[in-house]
Amino acid sequence: MIQMPISVLRFPLAALLVLSAALLSFPQDKRNDRPQEPGATPLRREDNKKPPDPTRYTYEFTKAEFIVRHILIEHDALGRGKITFERRGEETPIVEPIELSIAALGRVLGLWTELRFLDSTENYQTAKSFAHLGTYKLRMDDGKHQRTAEFNWSNNKVAWTLTNEYRRVSDQAILIFNLKLARELQPLNAPQLLNEMESQLTRDGLSDPYQLVPLLNELKTDEHIPLIARNHADRLLKKIEK
Question: 204 near 103, Cβ under 8 Å?
Answer without folding.
Answer: no
